[in-house]
């Protein structure tokens, strides 16, 4: 009991905020938007340049609307993530609506492992609710945050409903070990970060530019034979999201080289074009040039 109480004591301010009703949290989000967008101007130049280069044909007034929509959504994600500390299972399942869970259930019933090749789109943090819908082991790969206090907070949030957080450097070895034990599982990899120069990468035409993508997800899928699905979000209304799974491949070994990456990039681009304000535009996504 003492060990279980320690995290709550350490992160007491966040638990206190999390206990607030959602309408109050969204008032805080509105205030945070004003601070982040108008006062701090957090990465305003990065966001503006990313949107301008991705949608050069759109008028400035439309690009500015996308920019503001993103910042409002970003602030919502922050308070929604904190709410995860105390949200009930019933409320979580009500707020995340799966549009086609049968696709996932089909492959898991056939004892086929699934690779969720996801992105910073919609409320990606709420993918941690998936163990509430599917009674299978769920793993997510992550890169530790340098701030140990914040890293510990997000680990508590992400593991609350049964997700196993695995450091990216240990991901491949962990998955292989679990497969040898015949564990049926879903593995989540976020694929829209910008690789560093020393990483292996593949270039795709994405959002009007040549863009580098990690190749690790494809290598893992081809090695393990996992079914590759792309989960995309839509925002039904504030605090409610629809999640739809799209099949990239259920036979990765037969896919052309880099085909999984290219199909993922295409699926992600389509999701962004439908709801541009739901993607993480503050990421320095195009640090590398072809």
Automatic annotation (TrEMBL):
<dbReference type="GO" id="GO:0009247">
    <property type="term" value="P:glycolipid biosynthetic process"/>
</dbReference>
<keyword id="KW-0472">Membrane</keyword>
<keyword id="KW-1133">Transmembrane helix</keyword>
<keyword id="KW-0997">Cell inner membrane</keyword>
<feature type="transmembrane region" description="Helical">
    <location>
        <begin position="12"/>
        <end position="40"/>
    </location>
</feature>
<keyword id="KW-0012">Acyltransferase</keyword>
<protein>
    <recommendedName>
        <fullName>Lipid A biosynthesis acyltransferase</fullName>
    </recommendedName>
</protein>
<dbReference type="InterPro" id="IPR004960">
    <property type="entry name" value="LipA_acyltrans"/>
</dbReference>
<keyword id="KW-1003">Cell membrane</keyword>
<dbReference type="GO" id="GO:0016746">
    <property type="term" value="F:acyltransferase activity"/>
</dbReference>
<keyword id="KW-0812">Transmembrane</keyword>
<dbReference type="GO" id="GO:0005886">
    <property type="term" value="C:plasma membrane"/>
</dbReference>
<dbReference type="Pfam" id="PF03279">
    <property type="entry name" value="Lip_A_acyltrans"/>
</dbReference>
<keyword id="KW-0808">Transferase</keyword>
């Amino acid at each position: 009991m003492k060990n279980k109480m320690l995290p709550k004591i350490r992160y007491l301010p966040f638990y206190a905020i999390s206990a607030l009703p959602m309408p109050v949290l969204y008032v805080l989000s509105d205030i945070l938007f004003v601070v982040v967008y108008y006062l701090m101007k957090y990465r305003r130049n990065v966001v503006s340049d990313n949107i301008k280069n991705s949608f050069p044909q759109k008028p400035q007034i439309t690009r500015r609307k996308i920019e503001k929509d993103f910042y409002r959504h970003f602030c919502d994600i922050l308070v929604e993530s904190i709410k995860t500390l105390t949200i009930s299972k019933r409320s979580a399942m009500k707020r995340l609506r799966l549009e086609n869970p049968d696709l996932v259930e089909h492959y898991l019933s056939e004892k086929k492992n699934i690779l969720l090749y996801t992105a910073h789109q919609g409320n990606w943090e709420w993918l941690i609710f998936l163990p509430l819908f599917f009674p299978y082991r769920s793993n997510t790969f992550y890169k530790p945050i340098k701030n140990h206090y914040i890293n510990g907070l997000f680990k508590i949030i992400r593991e609350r409903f049964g997700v196993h957080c695995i450091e990216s450097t240990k991901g491949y070895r962990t998955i292989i070990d679990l497969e040898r034990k015949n564990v049926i599982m879903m593995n989540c990899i976020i694929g829209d970060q910008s690789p560093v120069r020393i990483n292996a990468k593949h270039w795709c035409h994405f959002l009007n530019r040549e863009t580098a993508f990690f190749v690790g997800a494809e290598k893992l899928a081809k090695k393990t034979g996992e079914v590759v699905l792309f989960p995309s979000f839509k925002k039904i209304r504030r605090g409610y999201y629809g999640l739809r799974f799209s099949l990239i491949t259920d036979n990765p070994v037969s896919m052309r080289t880099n085909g999984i990456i290219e199909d993922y990039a295409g699926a992600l681009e389509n999701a962004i074009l439908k709801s541009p304000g739901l993607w993480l535009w503050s990421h320095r996504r195009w640090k590398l040039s072809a």
